[in-house]
Specification:
The complex is a heterodimer of chains A (180) and B (181).
Chain A (H helix, E strand, L loop, with lengths): L1 E2 L3 E5 L5 H8 L2 H7 L8 H14 L5 E6 L4 E11 L4 E8 L9 H17 L3 E7 L3 H9 L3 E12 L2 E11 H10 L1
Parallel strand pairs in A: 5-6
Antiparallel strand pairs in A: 1-2, 2-3, 3-4, 4-5, 6-8, 7-8
Helix pairs in contact in A: 1-3
Chain B lengths: L1 E2 L4 E4 L5 H8 L2 H6 L10 H14 L5 E6 L5 E11 L4 E8 L9 H15 L5 E7 L3 H9 L3 E12 L2 E11 H9 L1
Parallel strand pairs in B: 5-6
Antiparallel strand pairs in B: 1-2, 2-3, 3-4, 4-5, 6-8, 7-8
Helix pairs in contact in B: 1-3, 4-5
The chains are: A alpha+beta (180), B alpha+beta (181).
Chain lengths: 180, 181
């Protein structure tokens, strides 16, 4: 368990599947999170997700919970490459009333601290759609910088939208943590 | 089969896998495609893996062989991840026989494949990840109109140093404009 001021990160459990599936199918999460809308129905999504988690050989997944132990969202690694010391990450806050309150930023800093200073990675990367300004602000606050822009990458809202490639290096994160 | 002056590209056959596995075990390939996970397998293991892939035949993937007009296999290319909704696909490619890395073979193979992906498969945008220590690969894509969209700083380990990788892309609109002129 990683403890922050207002939230904790705890390892994902099998029984979290329903929470994850319910919120990942929420329209707001979905349109900011997925390149495709073609998700399976909820029941199949939960089953598929459970099977996927139980066969995952590497990577980390956490539930973001408040101090009362209620799940607010989730964050996890993808395509971790230990040789190069890199990974992609993804994060979402599920409860609409919990968004834009700094929970995501706090969770992200806990996750980065774990990945850089426990797992020993050098670089953490993520992609974020250009219209997801709330998330971009959160990532910038955590020290992520834009490495490039995938132009006209995602068809949504009747047009092609850009996708930002962002990254943070371990030394920049640790410097930022000391500065704070 | 798509034919050029120097090379032709055709669908991979199960009989190509031995040669392709051999080319993929060469140090040049391993150095320039090291964004892949470490591959602790021997040539025969790789060959078996690719034969199994060919037998399963995923309709969302396409794997082709690059060969000379005389039928000598010198490399491969294909697409592995498609987002049909967004009109995107990710290309992979390599010339494994170093003798053919220069001289326009790579460039022509990419040109033939790009033509197929835009004119037949109807993709809107093609993407490729190239390492900065692969000047031949970089040149082949640049000459075909690909442009860098992202520079991933210090992204992969090569000979003890972290080197950059490039995400490059080509839009069908730009390709059509340059070919109509």
């Amino acid at each position: 368990m990683f403890t922050g001021e207002r939230i904790n990160l705890r390892p994902l459990r099998k029984e979290d599947a329903e929470f994850i599936a319910r919120y990942q199918q929420d329209a707001d999460v979905l349109e900011n999170y997925y390149m495709s809308y073609a998700l399976p129905p909820l029941k199949e999504f939960i089953e598929g997700w459970r099977n996927h988690q139980s066969t995952q050989k590497e990577g980390y997944a956490f539930i973001i919970e408040n101090k009362q132990g209620e799940p607010l969202g989730s964050c996890h690694t993808m395509w971790m490459n230990m040789r190069n010391g890199t990974t992609y990450i993804a994060i979402f806050i599920g409860h609409p009333e919990c968004r834009s309150k700094g929970y995501g930023t706090e969770a992200m800093k806990l996750l980065l601290n774990f990945l850089f200073n426990e797992v020993g990675l050098r670089k953490v990367k993520l992609n974020v759609f250009s219209f997801n300004q709330r998330a971009i602000r959160c990532y910038e606050k955590c020290g992520f910088k834009i490495e490039g822009i995938y132009k006209q990458e995602l068809y949504r809202y009747g047009r092609y939208n850009d996708n930002f490639a962002m990254a943070i290096m371990r030394e920049d994160f640790n410097r930022g943590m000391t500065d704070v | 089969m798509y034919k050029g002056n120097l090379v032709q590209i055709r669908h991979q056959s199960i009989f190509d896998m031995g040669k392709l596995a051999e080319l993929m075990c060469k140090s040049k390939y391993l150095e320039t495609h090291s964004y892949e996970d470490p591959r602790f397998t021997y040539k025969e293991g790789l060959e078996k893996q690719y034969k199994e892939r060919a037998e399963k035949h995923n309709h969302n993937e396409l794997h082709m062989t690059i060969e000379t007009p005389q039928g000598k296999v010198i490399g491969a290319l294909g697409i592995k991840d498609n987002f049909w909704k967004n009109g995107l696909t990710w290309i992979y490619s390599f010339i494994g026989d170093e003798e053919y890395l220069k001289g326009g073979y790579y460039e022509e193979a990419i040109a033939l494949f790009v033509e197929f992906l835009f004119m037949e498969a109807n993709f809107r945008k093609l993407k490729i990840n190239i390492q900065s220590n692969d000047p031949e690969g970089l040149a082949a894509y640049e000459k075909n109109g690909f442009q860098k969209e992202v520079v991933f700083k210090e992204d992969v380990l090569c000979h003890g140093k972290y080197i950059d990788t490039y995400e490059m892309a080509l839009f069908k609109d730009d390709y059509m404009k340059s070919h109509n002129n």
